């Protein structure tokens, strides 16, 4: 059996999709907690805090979308489409980490799981078949 057809990778993809959905819900429901993943300080001005909470809601919706896209590719798509969707999700995690790096800290909260997405995605896409 090619490694891309492994049931373990399917389970891993669902777990990672659930992680994205969880991050998204957290960002919408608990924006102050979601900000801790970036290791940034919340603003003290009420107007700035309102803008930040709005941006974190957008970030949350993005994460929920990525989770649902992974679920959809895993349930109704091919292993190759799931793999490439996973690789695309890893690019988002790497970019989030880079943004944190540029702003001084918090990058490892994103770079810690981004390679996992890349490896699982590459295996599902058939890179090692």
The arrangement of helices and strands along the chain is HHHHHH
Structural class: mainly alpha
Overall form = elongated
**In angstroms, what separates the terminal alpha carbons?**
9 Å
Beta percentage is under 5%
Which residue ranges are poorly predicted, with pLDDT under 50 across at least 5 consecutive positions? Answer: none
Radius of gyration: 16 Å
Number of strands: 0
* Major sheet characteristics: none
How many DSSP helices?
A: 6
Overall number of domains = 1
Structure description:
By secondary structure, the protein is mainly α. It has one domain (3-124). It is built from 6 helices and no strands. The chain has helices at 7-29, 31-35, 46-76, 79-102, 108-111, 114-124. The longest helix is centred in the middle third of the chain and has 31 residues, at 46-76. The N and C termini lie close together (9 Å).
What would the keywords be for this entry?
elongated; 129 residues; mainly alpha; 6 helices
Topology:
Elements: H1 7-29, H2 31-35, H3 46-76, H4 79-102, H5 108-111, H6 114-124
Question: What does this entry show, briefly?
Answer:
The longest helix is centred in the middle third of the chain and has 31 residues.
